[in-house]
Amino acid sequence: MFVVYITTTGALVSTTSALGLVVNPLPANLSVKQVPDPAIGFVWNQALLDFVQGPTSRVVSKSAFINRFTITELKEMFGYMHGATYTAAEQKNLAAVMRYLDFNDEIDLDNTNIQTGIGFLVTKAILTPVRAAQVLA
Q1: Distance between CA atoms of 107 and 65, rounded to whole angstroms?
Q2: Rounded Cα distance, 32 and 14, in Å
Q3: pLDDT at site 119
């Protein structure tokens, strides 16, 4: 594969399978380079002037997300609203986290609401900071 890119920035302009399809001569601000055909999911990297693996998805199914928790953690999370040692506001916060999970089939681990919810579980010692990092990894 041949790529045409802007010489100064590396921004991709076009691709073609044959060098004969590239205009000759190229305009002064463009360059051409031969690179291997990229695999599915690869994206153009302006600095490297090549295709690289694109960002991996940090979206998991709700079931896969729930399975990241231990049974003890799940018991605390699901039984949390019934504990007498928590304030009404704390009970509402966890209920909001659990309802948020109810309404989503997939969980985006980079979503602010998910990260805030996991952070809340840490503040209430349902999760340790290490476990929170593992859940969000």
Answers
A1: 7
A2: 9
A3: 94
Both tokens assigned to 63 = 């079931």
Strands 42-45 and 30-34, by their bridges, are unpaired
Residue type, 49: L
Write out pLDDT tens, residues 54-99.
Answer: 887 789 999 999 999 998 888 888 775 455 577 888 888 888 888 8
Q: Which residue has the tokens 């997300």?
A: 65
Q: Which amino acid is at 22?
A: V
- Phi–psi pair at 6, nearest 5 degrees: -75, 125
Decide: helix, strand or coil at residue 115.
Answer: helix
Condensed to tens digits (0 to 9), the pLDDT of residues 99-113 reads: 888 898 999 999 999
The DSSP line for 33-79 is EE-PPPPTTEEEETTTTEEEEPPPP-EEEHHHHHTTS-HHHHHHHHH
The residues that bridge with 15 in the sheet, in sequence order, are 3
Nearest partner of 97 among 85, 84, 107, 86, judged by Cα: 107
